[in-house]
Amino acid sequence: TRRNYDKRTEPVRGQNGKELVGLRRYSKDVGATLAEVKGASPSYTLNGDEHYVRVKITSSKPQANPYATGDLETAWTQPVFLKAK
Questions:
Q1: pTM (two decimals)
Q2: CB-CB neighbours of 26 under 10 Å
Q3: Residue 3 lies in a domain
Q4: Do 62 and 46 meet the contact criterion of CB atoms below 8 Å apart?
Q5: Which domain holds residue 71?
Q6: What contacts 77, CB < 8 A, 6 or more positions away?
Q7: pLDDT tens-digit readout, 32-83
């Protein structure tokens, strides 16, 4: 997510139109893909305009207990937040 992201949110509503407690819908800026790298030794160089960076690693190995057919093993890092300059 870049530093000057769209901070607008809206509540998620149930079928009855009432807000679902604790659920918000965020702009597409939040969690936007900043880079995609293939291979066994990926890297990312910070540009300085990032608010935070989080890495998603997708394996070529199928999940043992997939949610959907064809799901691959996946891991996420914790977010790394950059201090404002």
A1: 0.74
A2: 14
A3: no
A4: no
A5: 9-81
A6: 54, 55, 57
A7: 999 999 999 999 999 999 999 999 999 999 999 999 999 999 999 999 999 8
Residue 79 pLDDT: 95
H helices, E strands: number in the chain: 0, 6
Domain count of the fold of the chain = 1
Q: What is the pLDDT of residue 71?
A: 98
**Does residue 64 form part of some domain?**
yes
Q: Is 29 among the domain residues? A: yes
In a domain, 1, yes or no: no
- Bridge partners of 52, per DSSP, are 81
Mean pLDDT of 12-35: 97
Q: Residue with structure tokens 């998603």?
A: 56
Q: Is residue 17 left, alpha or beta, with left meaning phi > 0 and alpha meaning psi from -120 to 50? A: left
